[in-house]
Design a protein that fits this description.
about 20% helix; alpha+beta; globular; 6-stranded mixed beta sheet; 5 helices
Length: about 240
């Protein structure tokens, strides 16, 4: 399997939940509001024998009239219409911003028109409820009753090589994925396991729905990954997008 990190850049985020661009070569983290976190925004593309998979969709920003994630794909020689599956861990705004695109006349369509989108049914329902400010329903309302969307119910397996599991750790209905092909295992923990440093240190994060569960899952996955020689994908790691034992 071929892995392509799709970095949208580094950002800081504070209690306002706004993502502000950060250039590590020029900007000073100490000049950002107290408590600001420095994170990468980094969806992933995995090319397998069966699929071109997109894991989460980034912030959805555009430049010169084109979605940034489309530009990044094109730089790797891949068009948006070549993506066959979009797998969504959860619908927080930094993971769901690139789900759709809007034409000049205001018409909305899926940003990856030939792909089937997969997410948990309860995650979509919860995101649309308006209960949590980390969700921006306008980003993903298009998924409701769309023919290219498959709503999952709990844990399962897709096409005999993609395993998904609902953890309810970082967010209420967060899910993680394993991809297994030709003796290789890739793990995408999204915001349950967002950075390499978090896998090696035990701590409970206040921003997680169940921080203790996140901590214990990271410990479990790291041990299993070492034993099984997994490759980990880190959505928010500024320096290490992947790690392979």
């Amino acid at each position: 399997m071929r892995i392509i990190p799709l970095s949208e850049g580094a950002f800081t985020i504070d209690s306002s939940k706004k993502f502000i661009a950060f250039d590590p070569a020029k900007d000073d983290l100490q000049k950002r509001p107290v408590g600001s976190l420095l994170v990468e925004i980094q969806p992933f593309l995995i090319i397998t024998d069966k699929d071109i998979l997109l894991l989460d969709t980034g912030l959805g920003f555009s430049k010169d009239g084109q979605m940034q994630i489309h530009q990044i794909l094109q730089s790797h020689g891949i068009g948006a219409s070549e993506v066959t599956k979009v797998l969504l861990s959860h619908l927080h705004k930094d993971h769901a911003g690139g789900i759709k695109m809007t034409a000049a006349d205001g018409r909305e369509s899926l940003a990856f028109p030939e792909a089937t989108y997969y997410l948990q049914a309860k995650e979509l329902e919860y995101g649309l409820s308006g209960e949590n400010p980390s969700y921006h329903a306008a980003q993903f309302e298009i998924l409701k009753n769309h023919p290219k969307v498959v709503l999952l119910d709990g844990d399962g397996i897709l096409d005999d090589y993609i395993t998904y599991q609902v953890t309810g750790a970082h967010s209420k209905y967060h899910q993680v994925f394993w991809f297994k092909e030709a003796g290789q295992t890739i793990f995408f923990g999204a915001d349950d396991a967002p950075q390499l440093g978090q896998m090696r240190n035990r701590f409970v994060a206040k921003y997680d729905y169940d921080g203790r569960k996140c901590m214990e899952l990271r410990k479990q996955w790291w041990a299993e990954g070492e034993a099984g020689k997994w490759t980990f994908l880190f959505y928010h790691d500024v320096k290490s997008p992947t790690y392979t034992f």
